[in-house]
Amino acid sequence: MNNLQTVVLIPGDGIGPEVTDAVKRILDKAQAPLQWVEHQAGLAALEQSKEVLPAQTIASIEHHGIALKGPCTTPVAKGFRSVNVQLRKRLNLYAAVRPVRSLPGVPTRYENVDLIIVRENTEGLYSGVENEITPGVVMSMKVATDKGCQRIAQWAFRYATRRKRQRITVFHKANIMKITDGLFLDTARMIHEDEYPNIQHDDSIIDAGCMKLVQDPTQFDILLLENLYGDVVSDLCAGLVGGLGVVPGANIGDDYAVFEAVHGSAPDIAGKNIANPLALLMSSVMMLNHLTEKTKKNEFKLVANKIKNAYNLALVDGCKTGDLGGDLGTSQFADAVIERLNG
Ligand code: NAI
Predict the structure, then answer these.
(1) How far is the CA of 143 from the centre of ligand 1 (A)?
(2) Do 252 and 158 touch, CB atoms closer than 8 A?
(3) Are 14 and 270 in contact (CB under 8 A)?
(4) Phi-psi category of 244—alpha, beta or left, where left has phi over 0 and alpha has psi -120 to 50?
(5) In the chain, N or C: fewer CB atoms in 10 Å?
(6) First and final CA of the chain: distance in angstroms?
(7) How far apart are CA 141 and CA 135, in angstroms?
(8) Is the domain of 206 the same as that of 323?
(9) For 45-56, what is each residue's pLDDT tens digit?
(10) Mutate to test the pocket of ligand 1, among 244, 274, 282, 284 (most ligand atoms within 8 A of CB)
(11) Whole-structure pTM value
(12) 187 C-alpha vs ligand 1 centroid, how far in Å?
């Protein structure tokens, strides 16, 4: 027996293996009290086992409770159902949380952006329930349930309380989708009134909300969105703080948690050692903080802080990958972070 926490590592597709390798190297050098068990998902899994989401991968996450995952490719307009959607559904990872923050050394149009996206991860249009009703007529079903709306709203208000956040804004389109988005909005409103009156709560129709976001993102604190809106707004917000290379994420349920960047497998830059590993590195810091809360062991927190400090120092020193205007490759950026682990 040792005191190491086992984490399932899923390299994924495209830039996935490059960024997971860089992040694993940094975590190991930072002496994170972790040990890894590697499993495949996505195209990589298909090549090995003829399944995009092998039973062993699911079983291993169920057993160890926690995973760090690279992105998985989903074919467009054909082919298999998204591995990410399947994974989130199978493990009931109903809350996606994505902190969007300005970074030192990464100048953008706005300073001091600090907002959290909480995305419902299992329902809505994103479920991909589609049919051809008759030739030439197709439809897609948007699903919202009491249970789904309640648990994500509860999660968001609990999170706001724990993190001492002030306000939750729901983005919706309940003027058009009166029943589905109406349920999402009313449920959040009810939970606010009944259980969390001390957290401010408001809402915005999503089109106007997007306009407000690009005009001044600092006016928001926590955004609560159903699945598809959360997906789209996450990328929009990434664009406000430096792009997809700098926004981390976590998919969290009552029993398991899978940490992954917001970005996808970026096939256009895969295999070239130019992808930014920072978004996945920041996701791994979220994972260490999650482990601190779960196990009450401070050693995870210490390593999380050490890594955060090191990547901030690297950015301030101008060590950046090409997406941030720098000239470092994926592995060189990882080296720059490793060099700064001791301050
Ligand atoms: P994408 O996020 O992979 O890429 C969009 C753009 O951002 C590309 O130009 C890419 O080069 C750039 N980019 C993304 N991550 C970067 C990084 N770390 N460093 C530097 N540049 C980065 O989105 P796209 O192209 O729409 O999707 C590609 C594939 O990824 C699709 O198959 C999609 O289904 C999948 N995907 C998977 C996700 C996941 O596994 N969680 C999430 C989003 C998309």
Answers:
(1) 26
(2) no
(3) yes
(4) alpha
(5) N
(6) 32
(7) 18
(8) no
(9) 988 888 999 999
(10) 244
(11) 0.97
(12) 32
